[in-house]
Design a protein that fits this description.
The protein has four helices and 33 strands. It is mainly beta. The relative contact order is 0.15. An eight-stranded antiparallel sheet has the order 25-24-31-28-29-30-27-26, with no helix packed on it. Strands 1-20-21-16-15-14 form a six-stranded antiparallel sheet.
Length: about 425
């Protein structure tokens, strides 16, 4: 088996910034939970920084469902949560229709609350786990805790995206999913035995330990080596390869370290076949691994694994980028003033109090990427941030709070995203 400690190190380097695709059809994405489990203090990433979960709020039920999927849904218990995902991710639908899933049906009971692992879809990019929570008391009162996947009794350093159905009505049963992303190939499917540790918090904290075995063969990805260099307004990057698996399409991109601008994100990227069918960012998945400060990143799209195409193209649209020397913002919280900020790339920034500030973006910009992940005080110590997103009809606000406050002002923040778009329209033939 691959050295897990080495891979965890690589994952830690690559996951300083993780983008999550925005949801459609009434599903709202609030955050992600990164499981980087080491014995030292956990790094803080994403939207809220101690332990962050993804909630899909106001999930609309299916408006589109194929007859083939409907039949499988009737025949196999525990696929209710996957039904909601199918509305927004055709790769998941194709996996189920092509019987690429495994019914598990393992239940564990703690204090009258039953957790059932219903089914798993597994591939080279990770897993999608469907589960059910049942209780004589309202399950609405519970909140998600930690999620851990183990193999050979060792925690795997993976990213966990958990989607949860929330309803106004009091319910005693909830069907939901856990999506596990494996960007560095930590999971060894030659060893099919796993253990899922799942916790919920309410009047009492409950922990569930669920051993399970995957008996079905895991599909091998389809690899397409490209090594195609692209130049956009003087900024270079190379599309190295495309890997197509049942759950995701993974696109490996390397940016040129000599670029005078930092590339934050590829805001529009999709696969398109000869018939004009398009596969873009699935709304229920992590959209990319990597950050502005790493040269390599992996971008995820919904999968066309089970769809036959004679020709396949990668279409890359506008790119989010800005000059490297314009990224720093310095705030003195004692004086409640911004000591340094780019004049060419301004921010609508408001200092709220001695430990928090807010940045507003116009909704018309179509920008929802988290712009800061942490800060650095005058002594060079990292300053963890708690982050929340607030949406209104006109504004997308990001509120940042210094988790432990700081006495070592000023604090420097480095932008991990900014709504400056480089115009691009690149079309690369994949097959």
């Amino acid at each position: 088996m691959t050295n897990v400690k080495q891979i965890k190190h690589l994952v830690n380097e690559q996951m300083e910034a993780i983008q999550v695709s925005s949801a459609t059809g009434g599903a709202i994405l609030n955050g992600i939970k990164i499981a980087q489990r080491k014995k030292q203090r956990r790094s803080k990433i994403g939207f809220s920084l101690s332990a962050i979960a993804v909630l899909f709020l106001g999930f609309a039920f299916m408006t589109r469902i194929s007859p083939a999927f409907a039949q499988i849904f009737e025949d196999v218990p525990g696929l209710g949560a996957i039904v909601a995902i199918v509305e927004y991710d055709r790769g998941v639908e194709d996996s189920v229709v092509n019987n690429y899933f495994e019914a598990i049906g393992v239940s564990v009971k703690e204090n009258d609350v039953t957790f059932t692992l219903d089914a798993v879809i597994a591939d080279a990019t990770g897993m999608l786990l469907s589960y059910t929570l049942e209780s004589p008391n309202p399950v609405n009162d519970y909140h998600l805790g930690d999620t851990v996947l183990l193999q050979n009794e060792e925690e795997l350093g993976l990213a966990y995206v958990t989607s949860e159905h929330t309803q106004e009505d009091v319910i005693q049963k909830m069907e939901s999913t856990i999506r596990i992303s494996d960007p560095s190939g930590v999971i060894d499917y030659n060893n099919p035995d796993f253990t899922l540790k799942f916790s919920i918090r309410g009047e009492e904290d409950l922990k569930f330990v669920i051993p399970f075995e995957l008996k079905n063969k895991v599909a091998k990805p389809k690899h397409y080596k490209l090594n195609r260099e692209v130049v956009v307004e003087g900024q270079k990057f190379t599309v190295e390869q495309v890997k197509i698996s049942p759950l995701h399409v993974a696109i490996d991109i390397k940016t040129d370290p000599q670029n005078d601008m930092v590339i934050f994100n590829f805001s529009s990227i999709k696969l398109q076949n000869e018939r004009g069918n398009v596969w873009g960012s699935g709304s229920t998945s992590i959209s990319s691994f990597g950050s502005a400060d790493t040269t390599k990143r992996t971008i995820y799209l919904e999968s066309n694994y089970f769809q036959e195409s004679e020709e396949l193209y990668l279409v890359i649209g506008d790119i989010l980028a800005m000059p490297r020397d314009e990224r720093e913002i310095v705030i003195d919280f004692d004086k409640k003033e911004v000591a340094s900020i780019s004049k060419q790339y301004p921010l609508q920034l408001e200092i709220i109090d001695e430990s928090s500030f807010k940045v507003d973006f116009d909704n018309n910009l179509g920008f929802n990427q988290t712009i800061f992940t942490n800060g650095e005080d005058r002594n060079g110590r990292k300053v963890p941030l708690a982050i929340s997103h607030r949406l209104s009809d006109t504004t997308n606000s990001q509120v940042f709070t210094l988790e432990q406050g700081t006495k070592n002002n000023p604090v420097t923040f480095v932008l991990q995203g900014y709504p400056n778009y480089l115009k691009n329209d690149t079309r690369i033939k994949v097959k």
